[in-house]
């Protein structure tokens, strides 16, 4: 089993490239099923979640190739519409292949999706969207089957702006005759990326990033070519690492246009940040303070995925912070690991009260993706050696996190232990 060996407590200085976004690449890979011909995705990160997505596509008979950060998918010879349980259970975004299969073949079968254990993660809104477009749903023995050979467009209102349900509704609507309008969709930048890729395939989609998305479905889609956006949560991870350890870091491949609330919080805590085209930097020379009160929420509010990262930096600072998590009901599990490093964090319901104080190194284990990254961020700011276990979680969403943090000046290595 691998772990990160981190020797923390000294300032960072360095420069790092921010790879493509997992949460954009995954829906885009699902969308490749809609094309006639080979689609090309640039800046596609090499992550275990992406391998699982490519495994789903290969299992469905698609021709899949990778050349560096470019992935090509040709679904011409695809066959079947069942997603293997093992791949379905590996990640949350496997659910997105259902929307594409339904649009393309009018049929899809799978078990329930996996993903980070952040609390209840139902897919009722996905199912309701498919039903509204005319699909029949059957559930038996932990499996779900969808049948909708003649989907038809209509107006759908999401009670909450679910990212995955919005993406699935967009994908399924591409195969539905007529116009689908999604009211109250998620407005995350990854939704705008999905719209961009679908348009490159000839789909008529508009409104992503606003309160209403319109899809004119039923047209044949050709192969598309698109560059996946930079990963804003990976960028937030690097920024928080510098905030935790102090020093100065430069991020390339992004200018943080999607990171407003994260940058604002880091500045409130005493960091300086700056942007230039395709470049973002952060500097912390003095102590890291607190942020007062902060609340996660759907975009454009503070992203839940960056919540553990910011908390990890603040825990080793000198100020008081109160962070309320509004998206997932069990997203503070990582705080146990921070407390093992000496953090003073009290979790009461949906709120974590953080009293910043110096942290010390410890042996800790990741319980989920961002939780694992958060422990690594804290370890860089903590005095002495740490070991972070549970890297299978981290590898789902970071391409060589240890290499990137070492490029930023961190003393971190991946080692193999018993
Ligand atoms: C692969 C991917 O892109 N994952 C991201 C996506 O997850 P995901 O798409 O799962 O997140 P959602 O936006 O759907 O979930 C938001 C909230 O809606 C609830 N809900 C969702 C669907 C549903 O059918 N019923 C329901 O009640 C969830 O339990 C949660 O409380 O958006 C989350 C919120 O920004 C991020 O943390 C995840 O990193
Ligand atoms: C929660 C996350 O991923 P997933 O939805 O795939 O579990 C994440 O990217 O932080």
TrEMBL record:
It comes from Evtepia gabavorous. Pathway: Cell wall biogenesis; peptidoglycan biosynthesis. Belongs to the EPSP synthase family. MurA subfamily. Residues 6-403 form the Enolpyruvate transferase domain. It is found in: Cytoplasm. It comes from the Bacteria. This is UDP-N-acetylglucosamine 1-carboxyvinyltransferase. It catalyses: phosphoenolpyruvate + UDP-N-acetyl-alpha-D-glucosamine = UDP-N-acetyl-3-O-(1-carboxyvinyl)-alpha-D-glucosamine + phosphate.
